[in-house]
Amino acid sequence: MNDSLWLTPDEVEELTAKKRWPAQCRALAVLGVAFRPNAVGRPLVERAAVTSARAPARKQAEPNWGAIKHGKAAQA
Which residue range forms the structural domain that includes residue 7? Predict the structure, then answer.
């Protein structure tokens, strides 16, 4: 495991599936991963930004209480 504060250029490429820096920046923005471009435009991503990120919570499906109360058939 890499102990560096920043992801390596190869790791950023793997994360974004993009080779060019501007495309990597766009992909990181779409993914919601915080980054900073350095002086030449290469995106710098803190390792903690991707190792501590949690997936958004899924919304729990609930029964159609109105249909249950009123004895109506479920709608697809």
Answer: 1-54
